[in-house]
Please model this.
Amino acid sequence: MATTAELFEEPFVADEYIERLVWRTPGGGSRGGPEAFDPKRLLEEFVNHIQELQIMDERIQRKVEKLEQQCQKEAKEFAKKVQELQKSNQVAFQHFQELDEHISYVATKVCHLGDQLEGVNTPRQRAVEAQKLMKYFNEFLDGELKSDVFTNSEKIKEAADIIQKLHLIAQELPFDRFSEVKSKIASKYHDLECQLIQEFTSAQRRGEISRMREVAAVLLHFKGYSHCVDVYIKQCQEGAYLRNDIFEDAAILCQGVNKQVGDIFSNPETVLAKLIQNVFEIKLQSFVKDQLEECRKSDAEQYLKSLYDLYTRTTNLSSKLMEFNLGTDKQTFLSKLIKSIFISYLENYIEVETGYLKSRSAMILQRYYDSKNHQKRSIGTGGIQDLKERIRQRTNLPLGPSIDTHGETFLSQEVVVNLLQETKQAFERCHRLSDPSDLPRNAFRIFTILVEFLCIEHIDYALETGLAGIPSSDSRNANLYFLDVVQQANTIFHLFDKQFNDHLMPLISSSPKLSECLQKKKEIIEQMEMKLDTGIDRTLNCMIGQMKHILAAEQKKTDFKPEDENNVLIQYTNACVKVCAYVRKQVEKIKNSMDGKNVDTVLMELGVRFHRLIYEHLQQYSYSCMGGMLAICDVAEYRKCAKDFKIPMVLHLFDTLHALCNLLVVAPDNLKQVCSGEQLANLDKNILHSFVQLRADYRSARLARHFS
Model:
């Protein structure tokens, strides 16, 4: 049986159990093992082992039944014991309830007894207190204070308590009978009050916080308690303002008092608030007045800078004081203090600001024009000027005499930066000093001044002067400076727009003034762009006029119909060289003067006009075979120049023109084939015919027959 038990292992697996049994049985191995396989012996072993397992099962079953019986017996005993414990618990709970009721009864009796004792003792104490007060009152009636409490200076606290009560009683007595004693009590009341304040003052100078707290507690019931607080506030400020920065001194003073005042007074927030009020209304107000009144009428710039600086430092000090306990609504309290200091200066702030900004802006502009020795000419307004402007926009004609500006654009980035800087500072002051309800309106007023002096008096004047300085399209050797005006105006627009977004928008973003400012900005920009477009258009006309002069002066009829066809040594004509050089120079200037899509737009317009000029120019000549080849070379050079434009449409126009020039040299038999080519197939037949007519041999019967 022991052997059988050894075969059981945890966890039990039947297959493994059989395997272990087989290997332990002699003759139970495989045929190739050390012992021969014996099935009979293995069967006998299985039968014996099954019998052993049956015996083991019976034994275990008997043991299980015995344990079950024992468990049932113990369970019954445990249940019986639990029932007995429950009965004991119920008895104990009943005893506890009885004890609790008894304790409640005794406590009620004790409270009732205490109330009775208190009801007896309180009148007794009051009677004793009244007796003492009557005794002290009699001393005042007799005119001689004998009690130790009045003669001993160390008992000033007890004396103060008594005299304060006597003073209240004396207030109720009729004056005609007790005038003398009332006077004596009042005098003693006043003397003790002065002694207590003097004692508080001495303790404060000695730094004895505990003594200050005792005296302040006694004085709390006296009329002179507020005087005690005033003395404390006055002495706190002695020697507090030793630095050059009164705002920093005030902050340090309040921080120190905030740490101390709670240990002295029963109402520290009231005392601290009174100190702060005293600092603002006396020290700071006096300091601000001294700083501002000195320059209020004489120096507007210094006045505005000082006002902004003082207001900022005062609000910063207020922010630091917000950390302290000053009562329920400290924000309103501090705001009222700040307003009381600055109200007389803030009422007319925006008038001073706009007046200064106008005068300063005018001075900046005048100083610039003086440095250029330029006297600003008046730009007309009204019906006549509007009529001229409309005629100029529709006809592109220069109205009035051309003005020689000697290359001066009358635009200065230094002037612009100065104007924007002054306006930026004005916006910052406006943000800080304006009432929130007035802020958008005040910011709009500053913006209108910026528009007046920067956009109208400076940029618009420069554009008008630049337009007047553009020569007529038939002028020779004209200097074109308007593109320089365009370049500088473009830069200034970017600076103007940046300030609009960075400094004006935050001030008006949530008000109706936003749409008004955006509309005004839009109108100004549209007005400027209209004049820029007019000036650029007239400048392009001048460029084309210059090219016409070059072609007229340099191009000769013999260029395309040489006397000696066999002795032509040039690759392209001198007129072509000079025109291309001029065009490349102007293209580079346009690219430097503009940005974005504006460059492509202007270059495309110039390219189209340039193509039209060359096309019409070529139509004026008759071409021999060699002259036609030279014309093709010229157009090829023009096309190379057109590549610098980097505009596909312009390059396509010159490609087509180059293909048309091939008609000047192609053999008569091939004319129809060339005309039907890819580049010329979509052109009008009259255009093709007009080029063929330029050939010197056009009137020959053979050529006319081939092209008909």
Notes: The chain has a mean pLDDT of 82. The CA atoms of residues 91 and 258 lie 64 Å apart. The chain has 26 helices and no strands. The radius of gyration is 56 Å.
